[in-house]
Amino acid sequence: MLRTILAAGLTAGLFVSAGTFLAAGVTADDISARAKKLHFSATVVDTHDDTTQRFLDGKFDLGPRDARGSIDIPRMREGNLGAIFFSIWMPSKITGPEAVDRALVQIDAVREQVRKHSNDLMLATSAAEIREARKQGKIAALLGVEGGHMINSDLGVLRSYAALGVRYMTLTHSGNDEWADSSTDKPVHNGLTDFGKDVVREMNRLGVMVDISHVSDKTFYDALEVSKAPLIASHSSCRAICDAARNMTDQMIKDLAAKGGVIQINYHVGFLSQEFRDAEKAKPELEKEIQAEINKRCGDNEGCQLVEGDRIVREYMNAGKLPRVDYTKIIEHIDHAVKLAGAEHVGLGSDFDGAMMPFGMEDASKLPRITEALLQKGYSEGDVKKILGENTLRVMAEVERVSREPNGNK
Amino acid sequence: MRRLFAFVCVSCCLCAGHLFSRRASADDVAERAKKLHFSSIVLDTHDDTTQRFFSKNYDIGKRNPDGHVDIPRMREGGMNGIFFSIWIDGRIMGPPAVQKALDQIDAVHENVRKYSKDLTFCRTAAEVREAHRQGKIAALIGVEGGHMIGNDIRVLRMFGDLGVRYMTLSHFYNDEWADSSTDKPIHNGLTDFGKDIVREMNRQGIMVDISHVSDKTFYDALEVSKAPLIASHSSCRAMCNHVRDMSDDMIKALAAKGGVIQINYEKSFIDQGYKDASEKQSGGVVAVFDQLKKECGDDQECFGRKMVEQEKQATAEGKLPHVSWERIVEHIDHAVKLAGVDHVGLGSDFDGATMPDGMEDCSKLPKITEALMRKGYTDDDIRKILGGNTLRVMEQTEKVSRELQPH
What are the extents of the domains in chain A? Predict the structure, then answer.
């Protein structure tokens, strides 16, 4: 009975993109030799992972393989994840010096993990350092700050984050901050304030990538106009396929690309699948139920909440209470963005350990499936490599170049 | 004339045995001292100049009519290494203290970037030596007070990663885990957490600074730390009985573990007569500080200006005695006699204290070299005091840090 519903869900997925038919049948064991070779020779860069939250209770460690969550060193190795942006995050409602203090603590947590696992991890702050880490057989660990509220309207704090290795900042999280509107809040600034524009300029000067995931459409366009360097959408998908404010419209994707930027596709089922979104909206009681279950399992431990939320939602999908979303949906979004903007402007921004993952992409070890599916769709090996990481590396190098321009130094 | 007379007198009184220095002509010594001074690494472990970065009227790149430190005067005084102090009122704690400290650390970095032809940011002794080779001034950072880490060892690590190379365990007030010399003891020295902080500083290669702390905190830190300690800006209690200074026993104990006392030039810390008069006049340094804080709030410009004005006026009215810069040399000499020449350095407290006559700013530093030479100190000994000893502690701290890293 359950299977029937799941199958219906799967069919719906295929209906949207008939081309992924073959990919849907792929399992970890039957990645083709060609895909394997390509995937394991590529530099795979993931621009958004919330694993940092798991470091905070002091119990989780990246070293051993973990039964929960999506990221640890063994599974990154298995999926050849070569560079990972650890996200520094706290809810938008935490502001002021408290937010600064907490952000520092998270930056420390990442750096401590890198120090602890120096045989496997290397802190990277540039494209060249990511390549150097690859050469040494290490995974590059990078830092992204997910929300401008964490600088407390203080460019000195932004500069300190940059000095500690932060290489992108998402201008907002779910709520507006003091100088930028979020896509999931009521606009109060009409995009970026004048100070918000100064923040973007300072990010250019510092070589910190401007991330427009989470921000309102107007904030996106303001940032696009002000920034001298290309932007990234570190973890956003396509609104044309799934109508979430967190995703980008076709026009936004084209405009982002026209200035050299990259949209890194988010794997969250609620951003991938319209059907899932509609079902969620139609059954608000489910969300409450899920939240109650999360609270029961985790209390107020944020890291646990994120990881358990992911598991519970897949349990609900498995039980037929929510439409099943398959990882092929990720491919569909990649393909949509590529068709719109070209293969130079799409990348990967999983949102692992911070969102609900589709079946078949439960953790980082499953990443070779993306390579396999793209090859099966007829993508050239060169294009696949770009999507896996080269595009993000190109933006990083360009952002670094802009930061070195003398007129960038006021 | 008068000055010359005073100079010779002090020299004779303090070290009669150095015939050579008396035989040599004044000009000859002056010339040799100049040569020595300007070829040495002169590393000052404590300057409050950071506060001035927040004033629109101050520019470290230009000669300023007030204050004690800017690039032209550092060049003139041969001061080619400086620890910029990160400091906020010890009663500000928690996240606000952390953010304010970050702002000041950033201000140092920004000024170094702005004047990168003259300044180089340094984290290690080797980097200080390299800056010296390149003819640049080495800029370093020290955090003056454990309250700024917000009671959180992780914030300490981030300060370390931002380039902080020493932390004074407390300022005028006790913090959450260490007693100050100028507050009522509540922790009996260092708490267990305070000891963990010292261990973490060892691991991070951040020097443990025991200026400002209570005697018990000093002895606790000395016991716990695997690396030598510094007293970044303290003088000798035997010569001026101030709690901010170190007793002879403390200096000896500090030295026995390889540490360095960097002599503070503040008049109340080097001259008993001045200290007594100042306490009579205004209740001492902490009281003066509190009064100015009340008058100026967070306006550091106002704070600095009023401190100088009040002090000048009281001196002019004869309420406070004149103190000569030679007192600094006397403190150096006292500490050297106690602990040996390997354990004394310079920690002026420029831009954070009242300077004695003749040491009005950092351009006057060559006087110290000349005075030591006249006292018969060898060139090597003088180099150690000017900066070599501090570099040795930095190297030792770096070595301990490497040993404590996980393998």
Answer: 2-408
Half-sphere exposure for A194 (CA within 13 Å, toward CB)? 0
CB-CB contact of B84 with B54 (8 Å)? no
Burial code (b: 16+ CB inside 10 Å, e: under 16) for A365-394 equals: bbbbbbbbbbbbbebebebbbbbbbbbbbb
**Residue range(s) defining the domain that contains residue B348:** 19-271+323-404
- Class of CATH domain A2-408: alpha beta
Closest CA to A273 of A325, A313, A315: A325
* B52 falls within a domain: yes
Q: How far apart are CA B193 and CA B190, in angstroms?
A: 8
Name B119's Cβ contacts closer than 8 Å, sequence gap at least 6.
B71, B111, B112, B136, B137, B138, B139
For residue B157, list chain A residues with Cβ-Cβ distance below 8 A.
Answer: 108, 111-112
How many domains is chain B partitioned into structurally?
1
> Cα–chain-centroid distance for residue B275?
19
Residues 6+ apart with CB under 8 A from B290: none
DSSP B206: P
Q: Are A350 and A70 in contact (CB under 8 A)?
A: yes
Q: Are A47 and A144 in contact (CB under 8 A)?
A: yes
| Among candidates B94, B152, B158 on the partner chain, residue whose Cβ is nearest the Cβ of A107 | B158
Query: Best mutation site among A159, A164, A403, A404 for testing chain B: the one with the most B CBs within 10 Å?
Result: A159
Within a domain: residue B215?
Answer: yes
Q: Quick check: B224 and B199 in contact, CB under 8 A? A: yes
Subunit contact B157:A116, Cβ cutoff 8 A: no
Query: ipTM, 2 decimals?
Result: 0.89
Query: Where does B40-169 have alpha helices with state H?
Result: 71-77, 94-114, 125-133, 153-161
**Separation CA A86–CA A107 (nearest Å):** 9
Looking at residue B141, which CATH number applies to its domain?
3.20.20.140
B350 domain-assigned: yes
Residue B77 included in any domain? yes
| Residue from B180, B177, B165, B81 nearest B395 by CA | B165
Q: How far is CA B255 from CA A267, B221, B340, in A?
A: 60, 14, 8
What is d(CA A139, CA A132) in angstroms, rounded to the nearest whole number?
Answer: 10
* Residue B301: predicted pLDDT: 79
φ/ψ of A380, rounded to 5, equals -75, 160
- Name every chain A residue with its beta carbon within 8 A of the beta carbon of B150: 101
Backbone φ and ψ for B247, nearest 5 degrees, come out as -70, 165
Mean pLDDT of residues grouped by 10 in chain B (407 residues)?
35 42 69 97 98 95 97 98 96 96 98 98 98 98 98 98 98 97 97 98 98 98 98 98 98 98 97 95 83 84 84 91 98 98 98 96 98 98 98 98 85
Query: What span, in angstroms and rounded, lies between the C-alpha atoms of A9 and B326?
Result: 88
Return the residue matching tokens 């008068």.
Answer: B2
Distance CA B335, CA B255 (A): 10
Assign B15 to helix, strand or coil: coil
